[in-house]
Amino acid sequence: RVDNLSSGVRDQPGQHGETPSLLKNTKISQVWSTWSKHAKPVACSGDWLGVRDKCFYFSDDTRNWTASKIFCSLQKAELAQIDTQEDMEFLKRYAGTDMHWIGLSRKQGDSWKWTNGTTFNDWFEIIGNGSFAFLSADGVHSSRGFIDIKWICSKPKYFL
Question: Where in the cell is it found (predicted)?
Answer without folding.
Answer: Cell membrane
